């Protein structure tokens, strides 16, 4: 059985006949906050990966974008 304490943003739970949680219902504001946190984490990881790369000039960057 899953602990409801593991889902602090959940408003409601959808469970099976044994009480095992299969789905949670969130309010839209909490859902949007979670999406923003995921996007922020993705941006952080991308910036961290690129931190040792040499920056391109604007002209070189535009040329790169135009290539298929």
Quick recap of the structure?
With 68 residues, the chain is of the alpha+beta class.
**Considering DSSP H and I runs of 4 or more, what fraction of the residues is helical?**
40-55%
- Read across the widest sheet, the strand sequence of neighbours is 1-2
- Quick one: biggest sheet? 2 strands, antiparallel
Low-confidence stretches: none
* Beta-strand fraction estimate: 15-25%
Work out the helix count.
2
Instruction: Give the overall form.
Output: elongated
The overall strand count is 2
**Given the helix and strand composition, which structural class is it?**
alpha+beta
Overall domain count = 1
The SSE order reads EEHH
How far apart are the first and last residues' alpha carbons, in Å? 51 Å
Question: What's the alpha carbon Rg, rounded to whole Å?
Answer: 21 Å
Q: What is the residue-averaged pLDDT? A: 89
Could you walk me through the main structural features you see in this protein, from its secondary elements to its overall organization?
- This protein is α+β, with helices and mostly antiparallel strands and 68 residues long.
- The chain has one domain (4-66).
- Helix content is 47%, strand content 18%.
- The protein contains two helices and two strands; from the N terminus they run ββαα.
- The chain has helices at 28-50, 58-66, and strands spanning 10-15, 21-26.
- It has a two-stranded antiparallel sheet.
- It is elongated and about 60 Å long.
- The mean pLDDT is 89.
């Amino acid at each position: 059985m899953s602990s409801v304490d593991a889902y602090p943003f959940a408003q409601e739970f959808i469970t099976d006949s044994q009480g095992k949680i299969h789905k949670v219902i969130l309010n839209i504001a909490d859902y949007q906050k979670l999406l923003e946190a995921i996007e922020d984490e993705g941006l952080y990881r991308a910036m961290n990966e690129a931190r040792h790369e040499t920056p391109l000039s604007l002209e070189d960057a535009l040329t790169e974008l135009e290539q298929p």
